[in-house]
User: What shape does this take?
Amino acid sequence: MAQIKIGIIGGSGLDDPDILKNRIEKSVSTPYGEPSDVMILGEIGGVVCVLLARHGRKHDKMPGNVNYRANIWALKEEGCTHIIATNACGSLRETIPPGSLVIVDGFLDRTTKRQQTFYDGESGHPPGVCHMPMEPAFHPLMRQVILEAACGAKIKVLNGGCIVVIEGPRYSSKMESNMYRLLGGDLIGMTTVPEVVLAKEVGLLYAVIAMATDWDCWRDSGEKVSHDAVLKVFQENVKKILSLLQIIIPKMAQENWCEAIEEMQKLAKDSVVLPN
Ligand code: ADE
Assistant: This one.
């Protein structure tokens, strides 16, 4: 059985260090600069985990300014094999009411200003150009283990959904929201890209647990998204996601990941075109 270490990237408010036992803080720097905050090393159900607050523990980094490359690099260097990312997002579907948890299986990238690769030709960064395939974007076995663990614990989670990732920090206009619905989006957030892309570039197995906190603004009746509404629904449902993590993680450790880890590392290596 492969030894696993799970990085947990906590989205807004989903970064409560109390879920970890025997915590220690570790501050690191990377060739890409500083991660959003210290990493918190500890254990969940006997499994070694590393928690990182995506927006910083003071929530002082807006989605477009998060140093995604430093975050992923730091987790990889710390020895993580998997990342479970949590994400507060809007719902674009009547079937996904606020409070729902979704194990997403696709993304639609509408970001505009973010570094999406470690292979940028800068000195001190890895050489070559990385053409990373994006299907499947989210690791299928991780998704399956999360879904089964949730089902076993009778925690309702939805299987699959496409998350539209916008640049932010503003929310969408109603026209944009409707356009994303037409394009097939089910959820809308601001951080899954480039996180998922970078995780794949370093051969990490990556999955997202998304929590719908609002209806964005596409509905003709009902509340439109606002920061206060997001926080309120979020606080009402945060316990659900924290208990889910406590259930999933020990289950993940029962799986044999050797082949999956090897496959992702091979994909990461084979996707790089080195200079002649
Ligand atoms: N995060 C939470 N709700 C959101 C929304 N409606 N759009 C983008 N990001 C969000």
About this structure: The first strand starts at residue 6 and ends at 10. The pocket of adenine is lined by residues 88-90, 166, 171, 188-190, 213-214, 216, 225, 230 (CB under 6 Å).
